[in-house]
Amino acid sequence: MRIAQISPLYESVPPSLYGGTERVVSTLADTLVELGHDVTLFASGDSRTKARLVACRDKALRLDPARSWDLPAHLAMMEDVRSRIDSFDILHFHTDCFQMLLFEDVAARTVTTMHGRLDMKDLTPFLATHRRFPLVSVSDSQRTPCRFANFVATIPHGMKRDVIRPVESPSDDYVAFLGRISPEKGPDIAIDIARRAGWKIRIAAKVDTLDRGFYTETVEPLIKQGHVEFIGEIGDSQKSEFLGNARAVLFPIQWPEPFGLVMIEAMAAGTPVIAWPNGSVPEVIEDGVTGFHVTSVDDAVAAISRSAELDRARIRRTFERRFSDLAMAKAYVEVYEQLLAKARNRGKTSVRSSGMPAPHVAADVVKTDRANGKNTT
What we know:
By secondary structure, the chain is α/β, with parallel strands linked by helices. The chain has two domains: 153 residues, Glycogen Phosphorylase B (Rossmann fold), CATH 3.40.50; 148 residues, Glycogen Phosphorylase B (Rossmann fold), CATH 3.40.50. The protein is globular. GO terms for molecular function: glycosyltransferase activity.
């Protein structure tokens, strides 16, 4: 199958430091190649991939020192994808809504994974007028504000099994917070939990420009009080040690988290997750198995002690079963095949009803399926 993966340009694929969506795109593109598919990745030129890379700008936007503007960068990428449209059977977008005005005529052979929150004022009416686009949610809870939309599947994020590994003999002398410094992620709450429990907390997190005020006014004063080690952003190569040595990962999320990649990164390290059950958390963390659902600081303090009772090897096995790269890629291939089958059926109906040749897209799909056979998973 000829598949285009279209990534946001904010981070490289995979990101050198923080970046959830681009990390998922990297995993999916590489795993699809390993499964035998012909994959082209549209991304920034500093990306690293097993797929064929089309560099849509030289550097990812966030870490580019030059003054940049995301809108024209992404629109230029969409024009590039559009110019190559006949080279692909499936166009898989990870770019929210950028593509929906330019690809309406081929919406049936596109997939759009919605990576972010959907409870946005302007998003609901927009999706209501673009229902031809098949959407994939990353959790069932993510769909809640837009259940009317054309969701064809829920596919949890997956990770390469060898990116983060458990530590053989964890030091088990701190709790961890990983991700982004922002009010909705709750780093201040995590610090409060650790302090009340008498545990040191290590924080590896990105501070966005928009959240600089929150960091300076709220988080930094707490760090200065002690018992907190602020590391800053870390890459994948540092996560096994950072997560694997922790007693638990604190995830005091204060918003409807669409997925929460941090949770499966912790699970890959075999480390329990203590999380508020908001958004996707109940779908990702099995209470009492891979971590604990808590609804107060006091509950979280108690859960730190209880986390020692959980089986780290079982946590790792759960990650491999539910959130591996292979599980994610196979689920997407099934969606691709279902959409292409519908396109073929529409083409056949058109031939019978009008006596005219089937549309080019349907004929192209049939040709590709014959070349690749049915064993595409």
